[in-house]
Amino acid sequence: MAKKPASNVRVQSRFTPIDPPKPVGDSSDGGELNFFEVHLEQLHRAMEANGTVPKVRLVLSEPKNEIIVNFPAMMDSGEYRLFTGYRIQHNNILGPYKGGIRYSEHVTREEVKALSALMTYKCALMQIPFGGAKGGVRCNPRVLSRNEVERITRRFTHDLGSNIGPEYDIPAPDMGTNAQTMVWMMDTYMNGQDITKKNAVRGVVTGKSLTAGGSVGREKATGQGVVFALDEWADENNFSLDGARFTVQGFGNVGSHAARILSKAGGILVGVSDHTGSICDENIDPEELAAYVAANGGVAGYAKAASCTRDDFFGLACDVFIPAALEFQIGAHEAKLLRCRVIVEGANGPTTPAGDVVLESRGITVLPDIFANGGGVVVSYFEWVQNRRSESWDLKEVDTRLRAKIQDAYARMRAKATALAVPNRIAALACALDRLQASYAERGIFP
Ligand code: NAD
Q: Which of 125, 175, 223, 248 is deepest in the core (most CB within 10 A)?
């Protein structure tokens, strides 16, 4: 079927001239920062260091398509509310657009733009054949019923129409969404297809439940990737994860799985913080805490650990800190409080530029988001491949392939950091730019 934007969808094309990124203010909490501009500044550094040519700089300076839909959904009360949904498709030179869908009351166009760009570089760095995209609906899933979330999801998917598809743009879960959300998206998309094609489009989303065609190991994949990434750093630095003390901000999909997997490798969880509060203790059981969070919506009130302030949490003595919540959580203030050796960015964009400066001056290593949380999209790719081939891999195969991808990306990122004398964040972007630039060099820019 020809790809045609649905009639009620606004699609903008790019090729606006590149502007030099605006300087970013020094902010400890990130409240004043524009996520997309911060990203452009980091990209600019990587492009300068890597010698990226002007035409590639131009193409990558804005997303290719920005789709914004305002759509009604019925609340349980019978009233209708209007929601704003975004799907921003940054780049597809390396393959179909790929990236998560976020449900949060804080979703903005600029945030989704930045996240879509990070996906382009993440997929390029991890060497999987996808481009970058991201989506979101401005809503607070915590105050919506399951039925309301289902109606929002189905109507959003319907309104995206043929702007998504298994060979074109493939959503996945992100903050506030999960396997159930993806199953509703898949089912809605399938039901818009010719009856003979329904099963051929299962790969329109990844991160589905196993019964809907998801992959084993996908639910934990981002957290698993965080631990594999940390393992690479530990090997390089002769550091043992057995007995390593760690803290986690955000105890949702990424944070809770990373904590559970790291504690199985001998790590000791000493602090957790989320939107409800912060807790600390000498040995928090992540399995028990995950069950508590599932039942109570957050870490606040967990009786087996003491509650503490956010600053106390950031100041806990540990070896490893895993941010797995929102962007801009580590500003200059938090970076001064941290007492860890390494930060593994499970979240996207958790460190502000001012935070990065402080961390660098204090010798705290950062394993940056596009590398450290790339496990999610890598296993999404495995799910997509399995759907195409009607295969079903076992967990050992998924984890073995994932580890190999992360080992390979780590080696390339570290070699680039050394060659260009830049921090890992810039090196990871530079590795991604190599791949994108090679593709543009071969194919040129149409026409
Ligand atoms: P989630 O919705 O499962 O969990 C989000 C967590 O963040 C919750 O514990 C919540 O309490 C916490 N949080 C929200 N607001 C907070 C605040 N103001 N202060 C402290 N904590 C707060 O989301 P997730 O899927 O685990 O995603 C977390 C991060 O990881 C996001 O940045 C997301 O983009 C990134 N990420 C997710 C995946 C994935 O596969 N799910 C993949 C790559 C990156």
A: 248
